[in-house]
């Protein structure tokens, strides 16, 4: 990942504003939910766009037929087949 070289300060409430340039690059709209992940081993805070609740993690398909598994994993039928074959072949 390339560094944009932008530095922001944390405010008194612990907030950091995402620069408009970065929001445009990643198409993050105002009030959009963003997941915060912490990688303690590499001393990083990672922001990820929140995906639709029913979006398959493999294929990106959004459907009421998709299934939610433990750990928040969402798979479509096709996504489950792809994952099954990938695990079977390894």
Automatic annotation (TrEMBL):
- Looking at the record, the residues that make up the SpoVT-AbrB domain are 5-51
Q: Which InterPro entries match?
A: AbrB_C (IPR040678), B_subtilis_Trans_State_Reg (IPR052731), SpoVT-AbrB_dom (IPR007159), SpoVT-AbrB_sf (IPR037914)
Pfam families found in the cross-reference section: AbrB_C, MazE_antitoxin
A single GO molecular function term of this UniProt record = DNA binding
Q: By its UniProt entry, which PROSITE patterns does this protein fall under?
A: SPOVT_ABRB (PS51740)
The highest taxon in the source lineage is: Bacteria
Alphabetically list the UniProt keywords.
DNA-binding
Q: Does the keyword DNA-binding apply?
A: yes
Q: What is this protein called?
A: AbrB family transcriptional regulator
Upper lineage ranks?
Bacteria, Bacillati, Bacillota, Bacilli, Bacillales
């Amino acid at each position: 990942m390339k560094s944009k070289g932008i530095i922001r300060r944390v405010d008194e409430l612990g907030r950091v504003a995402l620069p408009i340039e970065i929001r445009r690059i990643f198409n993050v709209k105002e009030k959009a939910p963003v997941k915060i992940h912490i990688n303690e081993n590499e001393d990083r805070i990672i922001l990820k766009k929140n995906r639709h609740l029913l979006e398959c993690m493999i294929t990106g398909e959004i459907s009421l037929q998709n299934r939610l598994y433990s750990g928040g994993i969402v798979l479509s039928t096709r996504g489950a087949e792809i994952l099954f074959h990938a695990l079977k072949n390894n």
